[in-house]
Every structure is written in C-alpha cells, then in structure tokens.
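Exercise (ungraded).
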Amino acid sequence: MNTGKAVRADLKVVPSHSSLWGRLLEGDRHAFAEIYEAHIDHLYHYGMHFCRDHERVNDNIQDLFQDLWLTREHLSPQVQHIRYYLISSLRRRLLRSLQRDRRWQHRDSWDGFEFEFTTPKENQLILEETAAEQKKLLQAALANLTRRQREAIYLRFYQNLSYNEVAGIMSMQVDSVYNTISKAIAILKKNLPFPLLLLFLGR
Amino acid sequence: MARKDYLSYTARDFALDEDFQQWVLQPATRNVFWERWLQQHPEKEADIREARQLVQNIRFTPYQLSAGQKEALWDAICGGLEDEAPSAPKTRSNWWQLWKYAAAVLFGMLIAGGWWWWQTEHTPAILSAHTRLGEVKTLLLPDSSEVTLNANSRLLYAGTDGKPREVWLDGEAFFHVKHTRSNQKFIVHTYDNVNVEVLGTQFNVNSAGKEVVVVLQQGKILLHIEGHNTSLALQPGEMVRYSKQDGDFTKSSVNADQYVSWHTGRLTMEDYSLADAAAFMERVFGKTIIVQDTQLLKYKVSGSMPIVYNADTMLVQLEKVFRMKFNQKGDEVWIQKK
C-alpha cells in the first residue's frame, strides 16, 4: 500500500526517534547530524509558511540546532516526537524574532499557510471556465479561515502532528483544533464533486 | 484505541478522524486495521474514497532548500560549535586509559626488574584497534599522530624510541602523522606488498578492495612496493593504485578531497557513479548492492553530503541523490530505476 506515500512525497518514513534523541543527549554527533537531515526540510517548510522570510528562517534554524547541541545535557529525555519538539521551538523563536522587528508589528492579518486543493487526476479533463468559477467560489469560502486556523490545518495535514500536538504548539484547546479542521473539511467537501484544478488562498 | 462506530461515519466524519487521517497520510502506520475494515465493510467504500480525497488533496505551497543551501546551513551550525572537539572523545579516552594502563604496567616492570630494562632498553609499545561495519574511530597514537580508522578495519601500532614508528593496516585509514623532533620515520605496512614511509604529513591508505590505494593530501611520502624494488615519491594530490592481483601500479593526479573527506564525516561526490556508491555501502556497512540493469551503475552525480553511520539513513540519502528506488532485503539492496 504505497500510493499515499507517492502522492505526498514530503512525508518520509524515518527511523524510530526516541533512541536517536537518547543518543543526542549522550553527545553523539552522528545522531545530531541524523536529526538535522531528517527534519531540516520540514522545519524550513514550516518557517517559510510562517513568515516567508528566507534569511530569518535560516538564522532561527541555525540557532535552534546550535542550542540543541549546546544544551543537550539539560534537555528532557522524555521527548517522544522530535519533530513536534523542533517545530514548537522554531515557532517560539520566529515569534520572538518577529516581535522584535517593528516592520512586522502591524501585520496581524498577514497571511501564510496558504494551501491549494487538487482534484484527482481523472477529474482534470474539464473546461477551464468551469474551473475558474469553482476556484473563485472555493477561494471565497476558504477566505473565512483565519491564519491560525490555516496553521492548525497545516500542522495536522502537512506536518502530520496529532490533534493533541497541534493544540500544544498553538496553545489551543484540542476541541478547537478539531472544530477548525472540521470547518475546513466541510468547505472542501462542498467543492469535491465539482471539478477544479488548483486553488490558491491569499493573494 | 477507543471503539468508534465507524459504520455510521460519513465521508466527512472519516476525513476528520485522526486515526483515518493517519492511515491516509502515512499508509504504513495504520494499514492493517483499515484495509481489513474496508474488506469487512465494502458498502463504505465510496465514503472512504471520498474521505481519502479530502485528506489527500490539501496541498501547501512548497518551499525547499537546495542541497547546497542545506549543506551551507549545516556547516554554519557546526561552525558555531567549533570549540568542541570534533572527533569522538570516547575512543580517545579509551586509548588514553589503555595507555595509562600500559604506563602502569611499565612502571611496575621498572621497579620489579630494573636490570631487565637496562638490558633491553627499547621495549616496543604495541597497541591495536579495530572497527566494525558502520563504525569509524579516531585514534590518538602514543606519538601524538592521529589516525581515523574507517569501518571494518584493523590497525596495529608498534613504537620504540630511536626506531621508526610502524603500523600495520588492514582496511582503510586516514593518517595525520606528527613530525617528531628526532625525525623519526613513520611506516605504514599493508598486507599487500605496499609500504608507505613518511616523516609528518596527511594521507589516506585504503587496502580494503582489490587494490591498495594511497592518496596524499599534504606533505610528502615515499611508497615502497615489495617485489618491484621501487620507491615512488608522492606529491600532494597524487594517488597510487596498486593491483593486488597482478602487482601493477599507476600514479595519477586527483582531487585528494574526494578520497579523504570521509574522515571529516563528508562524502565528496565528484562524478560519483552509482558503482562508487555501491562500493562505499559494501565497504562501510557490508551491504551488497544488486543492480539488474548494469547501465545504472554508470549514472553519475556531483556534490557532497554528510556521512551518517547508519545504513538505513545513508541508503535513504543515496536513494534521493541518485533518484532511484532501493529495496532492502537483509544485507542486500536491490536498485531499480524510479
């Protein structure tokens, strides 16, 4: 059963992490390199969706990994899911870094975590006019989602974090994560029977 | 898992269910349960298919670092940590303990049999080390020379005051030899007629395959080939390959980095073919690579990547680099075109 993996090429199957974490705490540099290799793509992707500022994302990822190594003796051995730990940490760092930067302070409503919704291949042979109209409708519907809601959807469906983890990262109740995703699914569901190609949210 | 009444679920309910999402997002994780459930309830197939589409078709704009950017970032991370010793301190301290132990023994011998010391004067210090598959060790020799021993290799060291320092190598190692004040020679013996003589320098010796390959990075070395009565002087960036089978040897100029960078944990790939990668995996991890379409072996890439001493991770990385499909069956790796 490999079809899903082929479609979502970004999801890699990585070896069990708890032992990797243990090795990191013991000062194993190979484990450190392995953690970097396994998570850098996801961290960068998250960072870019968060602020779309390559330099800032790069700097914060660099600090994150350096601190990870330097403070490894004080890290909790309890960490079960490394990606959850890394993304929470990167999120806090990016927030702090954005708050320090005045240019960003007026941009509460600034978008990010824009997603598109693709239809299965067999539905793609359609008239472009219909597609454009559908696209407009879906765009209008999805525009009702806030940035925070989109981020929750992103963390669940792209980063594959559990509802609990998403709630933890965003300081939300698990219920509201669930409701957010329910709302998005409802919007998408309404559009599913109709053929449509690509939909961009935001600009 | 909580018992859920999946029979009453609509497509939307499925799409919202965490367990169902998990199956769609990472099919390897929950497939047994869901495939069986679907078999038992074929009437739910349409709902399931629709729910799958809902979960699967949400796509986020891609942002991706290039391989070069990733590497630069990793170098920046490591650069900031430079104060720390880069080599594995564990191995070093083991040697140190061994050495302390040896010193203690020598001290005991000194007291117990001082006369014997007078007679022999030069008692050689003999040390040995080996690595298993997938393991690399950095050793600090008693003369302060540093040796990085690649996987599945063996090294024997003998040093006596006033006489040349000598090591016997089976496998591959990178040497950083300390020049001593007394201009004491350092000789690397392989078990295949090739001996390398140096004063102080950096070079790589690989006797693991059908050839003995010596690459000089810095300094100057003298190569003796037994049976040929020949001595070859090597300049930095030069390589000598000696065939164990027929005793032939050739000298050429190369990019030394490509042959020695493994000791700093990087794989330098310059016109690096799948055949080279196969040799690497076999050498370091004992994996046998099997390719049915031998044309694939000529497929080449250039770049570099960190070496991770974990066979699975390394295979995943190489799979990505060569854009091919690797299927692992025990110690065999079958490679196909993607």
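Further reading is listed at the end of the chapter. For now, observe: Residues 85-93 of chain B have pLDDT under 50 and may be disordered. The CA atoms of residues 276 and 297 of chain B lie 8 Å apart.
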